[in-house]
């Protein structure tokens, strides 16, 4: 797969790997356990161009293929998965503008997203609606040339440190089908837009997840992505294929990190006069872990390649996301078993993989939904 990379792609990947070794790995444990926003690393990510990774070059981005993007995300997640969330939700917001924005919106927003001057994320989920996005209640009412927005969003990544969000609302709550009454706005923090609280969570530390409240929040009509009401659902779900490839790549990174740490430890730790890697019980686990990690990576590259060819790939992205996230969960638990008591220690990375992995089963569409999507696609592609 690496053979498909251009020289430029290879250079970017190498620069990211060097940065991870030099500036990230030595600080992960401290930042993770302090749940501290990695300010300095965010600046370094901007210098590397990561905030513009998938933004087209004509708007100042790197214009990377999904394949190269997936490889970068995989490497970052192998070192500290939280960092990938800081630029990935930002890039999903940017992709809403790239795919659906007016020429004026692209020219105004994308160059500032690409440099990281403006950073943000995607605000879809509400306290009463996650998987069933069409059940959201946040409402935008027309008011002169603009809109007034009221509602609450929850679990929004980058909610505290980001300043602008692709915000999914209802412009016509009575519409049938429901998605025809949905629109997406670019909401920049200001009067009427507050962060009500930071949400405490099991893992995914360092990156902020927050609840956002909109009360009488006014936006100009020029903030309606695409300039036409009723396209919000399409704007939100249209980015999901790339979003799922990204979550799959994070799962691959975690599965591979758990494997690498275990392979090392199995050759150092001794019991009953032997390295534990010489016990067959440990070998069985390592063999299983390596196979899961490899299968997850191949499925992820397969989905990314289909995306790069411009093919419909919701089934492939769903399979990759499902397989890679489950591989991350299984490998992180096996890594903990292999490390014995040390796997449970906060002095090593293994317990973090175990806390981070389950999020990959939830984000960008739960794994229950992935299997349903795969099954529906199987029947659609092979009608009886
Ligand atoms: C750390 C973190 C970060 C997040 N970041 C963001 C973000 O940046 N932006 C954002 O908008 N959201 C974000 N989310 C929210 C996330 O996308 C949702 O949690 C996810 O979509 C699931 O929605 P839910 O939690 O409401 O679960 P629900 O939709 O209530 O689902 C509960 C259970 O029911 C199952 N289920 C639901 N419907 C069906 C069905 N039709 N058939 C079978 N099973 C079904 C689900 O699979 C799940 O097992 C984040 C969440 C977390 C935990």
Automatic annotation (TrEMBL):
Keywords: FAD, Flavoprotein, Oxidoreductase
A GO molecular function held by the record: flavin adenine dinucleotide binding
Keyword Oxidoreductase belongs to the record: yes
Pfam family, one: Acyl-CoA_dh_M
Superkingdom of this protein's organism: Bacteria
Domain called Acyl-CoA dehydrogenase/oxidase N-terminal: residue spans: 6-117
Residue stretches making up the Acyl-CoA dehydrogenase/oxidase C-terminal domain: 230-378
All residue ranges annotated as the Acyl-CoA oxidase/dehydrogenase middle domain in the record: 122-216
InterPro entries assigned: Acyl-CoA_DH_CS, Acyl-CoA_Oxase/DH_mid-dom, Acyl-CoA_Oxase/DH_mid-dom_sf, AcylCo_DH-like_C, AcylCo_DH/oxidase_C, AcylCoA_DH/ox_N, AcylCoA_DH/ox_N_sf, AcylCoA_DH/oxidase_NM_dom_sf
Family membership: Belongs to the acyl-CoA dehydrogenase family.
Name of this chain's protein: Acyl-CoA dehydrogenase
Organism: Albimonas donghaensis
């Amino acid at each position: 797969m690496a053979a498909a990379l251009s020289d430029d792609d290879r250079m970017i990947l190498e620069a990211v790997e060097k940065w991870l070794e030099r500036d990230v790995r030595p600080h992960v444990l401290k930042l993770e356990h302090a749940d501290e926003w990695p300010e300095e690393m965010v600046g370094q990510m901007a210098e590397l161009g990561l905030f513009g990774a998938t933004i087209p070059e004509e708007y100042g981005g790197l214009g990377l293929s999904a394949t190269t993007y997936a490889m970068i995300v995989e490497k970052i997640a192998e070192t500290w998965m939280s960092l990938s969330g800081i630029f990935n939700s930002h890039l999903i917001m940017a992709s809403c503008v790239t795919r659906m924005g007016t020429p004026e919106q692209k020219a105004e927003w994308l160059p500032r997203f690409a440099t990281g001057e403006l950073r943000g994320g995607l605000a879809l989920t509400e306290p009463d609606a996650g998987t069933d996005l069409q059940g959201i209640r946040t409402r935008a009412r027309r008011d002169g040339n603009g809109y007034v927005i009221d509602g609450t969003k929850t679990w929004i990544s980058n909610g505290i440190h980001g300043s602008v969000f692709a915000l999914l609302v209802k412009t016509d709550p009575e519409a049938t089908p429901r998605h025809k009454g949905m629109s997406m706005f670019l909401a920049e923090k200001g009067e009427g837009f507050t962060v009500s609280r930071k949400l405490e969570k099991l893992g995914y530390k360092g990156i902020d997840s927050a609840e956002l409240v909109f009360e009488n929040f006014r936006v100009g009509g020029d903030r309606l992505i695409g300039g036409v009401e009723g396209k919000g659902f399409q704007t939100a779900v249209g980015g999901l294929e790339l979003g799922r490839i990204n979550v799959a790549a994070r799962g691959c990174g975690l599965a591979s990190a758990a494997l690498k740490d275990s392979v090392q430890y199995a050759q150092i730790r001794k019991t009953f006069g032997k390295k534990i890697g010489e016990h067959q019980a440990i070998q069985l686990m390592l063999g299983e872990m390596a196979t899961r990690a490899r299968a997850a990576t191949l499925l992820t590259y397969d989905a990314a390649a289909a995306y790069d060819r411009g093919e419909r790939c919701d089934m492939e992205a769903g399979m990759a996301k499902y397989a890679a996230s489950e591989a991350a969960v299984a490998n992180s638990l096996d890594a903990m078993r292999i490390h014995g008591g040390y796997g449970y220690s906060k002095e090593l990375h293994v317990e973090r993989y175990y806390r981070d992995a389950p999020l990959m089963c939830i984000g960008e569409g739960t794994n229950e939904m992935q299997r349903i999507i795969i099954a529906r696609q199987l029947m659609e592609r092979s009608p009886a």
